[in-house]
């Protein structure tokens, strides 16, 4: 599974682009395919976007050219739209009221339908991203202020969005009424910052203030900060539980809770539900470290560093091309033989998606001399694809949608395999009724239009142009 995007925005800093760059650095885990910053100096917008990691995309000179006291930035992994530079964000356009840029985390589930309608009306699209649809809706709005135009556009889209818009003079942040993806507000002196996770505040020495509420819009401008409730928040929110399991950094606060705290609880709960007769606990670094600490603490087993991760490769899962995954596990992890040899080992991972990583890892751990491998997973079996911003493969590729836990245990070649229960998972968060757990139970809080796959947009566009060509030649 992959999502995955990060947004960052800052209004009123002499070093807006540099701050945004640092914020994006700390949010690198949310998207590693491309990065972009757009800044504004009161007159002009400046833009830099490229494919690759934050460290590669920017240089001193580039950052100096991004002038101004306002900036928004984005890291992207494609959940809709092919991996290509035209699909990098923030996405900047000119429209009748000037320039506007958008940075989006999430997925709009009715974007194909909206886009088709607009194309049939003569609109021209430059990318295959669902976010571009939003800019079209804003540009078409007949409302008389930018805030109202954005609200008008948001009223027409369905799905998951944590958004930042940059206009000539304002940053407008908005979070969907279901609150799928995180978005939080911070402050540094008199400067306000909005970011996907609070770790982006820490890196620039800013303080976390609060979450942007579901259905809330925050406007940052020379007049200060303004909050507008643009839609009632959903009766039951759909905050993504996967942010706690895997996606967010443990040093962040998301949805008002410390990720580290929730993740430790996952580990403790897992140990309560499924103890193991073993000698040591190891994690699959880094995403499972905190869960493994919780498990070790509750089970009384020593936590050991049994797998060493090479930090100079990206999260391989996050790289789009499937073939690259064949050799990723050995590049990424190496077992510490002295730690593993002759031991009965509890291996903690946060999730199993396709099962391919774990299968290879178990082989490595056995080759290193482990006597027994007991696998414990800090989330329930993933049986359904997400289309709210976490990039899950199609359902048929999810191992738990086809195999029972015992079959997976056999496939992975482990002595025992146990997952955290849905009930146990929900006991680890403060407001369990307000989470989306679709990937574990298949209940979709917002229905999508049509069939979904990562490149449904590209596919749909291809199909549509095919159909059009036929229509035209008929
Ligand atoms: P798989 O080989 O498909 O079972 O991969 C499972 C591994 O992918 C787990 O170790 C997770 O840490 C990791 N993972 C889970 N969800 C995601 C995601 N959304 N993006 C990237 N990696 C993920």
Architecture overview:
The chain is α+β, with helices and mostly antiparallel strands and 474 residues long. It folds into 2 domains: 6-237, 4-Layer Sandwich (Glutamine Phosphoribosylpyrophosphate, subunit 1, domain 1), CATH 3.60.20.10; 260-441, Rossmann fold (3-Layer(aba) Sandwich), CATH 3.40.50. The protein is built from 18 helices and 23 strands. The strands form 6 sheets. A 7-stranded antiparallel beta sheet has the order 3-2-4-1-10-9-11. The chain has a 6-stranded antiparallel beta sheet with strand order 5-6-7-8-12-13, with helices on one face. Helix 4 (111-120) crosses helix 5 (130-140), helix 5 (130-140) packs across helix 6 and helix 9 crosses helix 10. Bound molecules: adenosine monophosphate. The site of adenosine monophosphate has 20 residues, from helix 13.
